[in-house]
Amino acid sequence: MFIDPETSVDLKRSIFNAIVAPRPIGWISTMSAAGQVNLAPFSHFNIVSTSPPVLIFSCNSPEDRPEKDTLVNVKATGEFVFNLVSYDLREAMNVTSTAAPHGVDEFELAKLEKAACVKVCPPRVAASPANLECRLLQIVEIAPVAKGDTPSNVVFGRVVGLHIQDQFFDGAGRFDTVKAQPLTRLGGIQYAPPGPIVEMPQPFKRAAETKREAS
Ligand SMILES: Cc1cc2nc3c(=O)[nH]c(=O)nc-3n(C[C@H](O)[C@H](O)[C@H](O)COP(=O)(O)O)c2cc1C
To answer: How far apart are CA 157 and CA 46, in angstroms?
Structure first.
């Protein structure tokens, strides 16, 4: 089957999400200019640069208000925090996706403990294995193209601080992703923790390694 999204007016949006899966979930905490705390999950989320460390998430247009609270807050303050959703935090994460009115603190809705950040104002999820403090780099709007399209805003943030719970460092000083059990989103209401893990050595050597070995 071939589907042309430019002509298939009733293409289910969920098909696209279900194909590009599993997706990591950016659980984003923000604070309004007035100091009200917000927390919401975004699976249109990823890292796009490691040096400098930069991540993105994308807010689509809600039906009940011009912009999602997360976007309003990031535009107002230029700060946000990524919180890792471990498998055991899945129900709490789901609660925080509620379209609650602006000013409602989803930490309280989901009974989540807050912890303070170091360089930014929004609090972080204390129970997350890791949290990344971010400062806004830029926002890119994905404009509607066809009838029925709605704009999305892609938020780019530079990571300015990392919090990692000690128990998630392995013996070699690496972050133990398997132990952290990050929840991923598949299509629709399907989620998954990491499946079987395989290790594959790189089929090539970096130039620096080859040089080191030769000297
Ligand atoms: C797992 C999951 C992933 C989501 N991913 C996105 C996303 O990538 N973009 C988006 O706009 N909404 C996404 N949502 C919906 C938002 O979380 C939801 O609209 C939320 O109410 C926004 O909160 P806010 O208005 O406080 O910012 C997702 C929901 C869930 C449960």
So the answer is: 11
CB contact burial 6-25 (16+ within 10 A = b; e otherwise): eeeeeeeeeeebeeebbbbb
pLDDT of 121-159, one tens digit each? 999 999 999 999 999 999 999 999 887 788 999 999 999
CA 208 to ligand 1 center in whole angstroms = 42
Atom of ligand 1 nearest to the CA of 45: 8
Residue 18 confidence (pLDDT) above 80: yes
Nearest Cα to 81, choosing from 168, 24, 161, 185? Answer: 161
Which residue, judged by its Cα, is nearest atom 7 of ligand 1?
Answer: 42
Q: Is 61 in the pocket of ligand 1 (CB under 6 A)?
A: no
Q: Was domain 13-214 assigned CATH 2.30.30.240?
A: no
Atom number, ligand 1, closest to the C-alpha of residue 93: 31
